[in-house]
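It is worth pausing here to work through a concrete case rather than discussing structure prediction in the abstract. The textbook approach is simple: state the sequence, then state the predicted structure, then interpret. We follow exactly that order.
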Amino acid sequence: MSYLLNQLNAIRHLAEIEAMATSKKVITREEWEKRLNDVKVRKEDMNKLVMNFLVTEGYVEAAEKFRLESGTEPDIDLATITDRMAVKKAVQCGNLEDAIEKVNDLNPEILDTNPQLFFHLQQQRLIELIRNGKVEEALEFAQEELAPRGEENQSFLEELERTVALLAFEDVTNCPVGELLDISQRLKTASEVNAAILTSQSHEKDPKLPSLLKMLIWAQNQLDEKAAYPRINDLSTGALEDPAV
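Step two, the predicted structure:
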């Protein structure tokens, strides 16, 4: 973790210097590692990044253990993570009625103030009916629950029409909207409701660590135009690779 942060800070520093240069500079591994070692990253800041990731992604047991080991306090009650993960799991398993009930138990205002989220949960519920071959029930549900919302919102109507189109194909492998039946659609809906719950708890809906890694990639790409230096190509290992000269 500290190595990645050092890499990012070193890149920022070098980019400021190289912005004034006209030729592409070559930085040796020895010189680059010295730059990395000169960058100081507080352990407390790294711990906060880890805790933020664990809390946002819902790893409640790991967050509790990390709290005890590092002394880093989460910014929300860890007990709420269990409730949030129960909602997420219900959506991922296709139990939408249970998921909606659990969201309302947590905070009724979440769905009352977010019509798009409520529509997507109801849309996923329709998808599950279609998946289970309950054609008549699916049509009735679409007409009574989703059609009125589609009349009020054009984007909702378009999504409803795409979903109902699943009923026109016996073999969904040939259906142009067959991806709605993929597990990835459940995961997308689960991610949306997870983010909404986090927002209602005044917590960031996305963990900071992935954003930091995206920033590292962007910074390296920018510096590539000005210098050849040991860069991180595999984020999973964080290993430096010598520049091609």
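Step three, interpretation. Strands lie at 25-26, 227-228, 231-234, 239-241. The chain has two domains: 2-72+206-241, 79-200.
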